[in-house]
Please model this.
Amino acid sequence: MADAAAKAGADVEALKAVAVEKATSDAVVELEANLVVVGGGAAGLSAAITAACEGETNIVLLEKEGALGGNAIRSGGFIEDLDPTDAIAIETNDGYNAWLEELVAAGPQDELEEQVWDELVTAYEAWKASGSTRLFDCPALLAIEYYHVEGTPPIYNMGYPALVNEFDHWFEEEIGGK
Ligand SMILES: Cc1cc2nc3c(=O)[nH]c(=O)nc-3n(C[C@H](O)[C@H](O)[C@H](O)COP(=O)(O)OP(=O)(O)OC[C@H]3O[C@@H](n4cnc5c(N)ncnc54)[C@H](O)[C@@H]3O)c2cc1C
Model:
């Protein structure tokens, strides 16, 4: 951080000398809620918002920092949503469409890609038939992209439903969870 600030021309020592005092409070607030969510990061916010969307009106969200978002406001990356609503899905573009068309036309490159290929083609054809102008994505495409970058077999890649199903099965059968 100090290195980055110095490169940007900042006086690092002067910045270090600035005392940052965190506001604290001894106030005690009593609240009653049907649902208390501890932590306003991506997970807590999603939980609270989902509960509200499901009709719960008495929710308390506790966040110890001065801002909501947790690590998501520090991360400079993306959070994959394989089935976003039109309101948040971004527009596709010619470059992406051409890349996708080429990828699908080339066919599976090996037997590992074959495992998810039919799913990719089915989802891709459905997207094309829908005339959507939103970015195409699906678990099989994500799995293949990760396979190309990370080298891990597509079926075991992030976001692939089979892996989620496998985990659910293990959780229910081995742990007795629901
Ligand atoms: C630099 C960086 C880059 C990343 N890049 C990506 C990416 O490209 N794609 C991706 O998918 N993920 C990425 N991640 C990971 C992603 O940001 C995290 O997995 C995700 O934000 C975690 O969310 P969370 O809600 O589980 O936890 P957190 O974000 O840690 O949220 C927990 C919240 O709980 C609060 N809290 C903790 N204890 C208490 C308490 N006792 N009382 C009240 N509140 C409390 C914390 O202040 C925090 O706000 C990245 C993370 C970092 C740091």
User: Anything to note?
Assistant: The first strand starts at residue 35 and ends at 38.
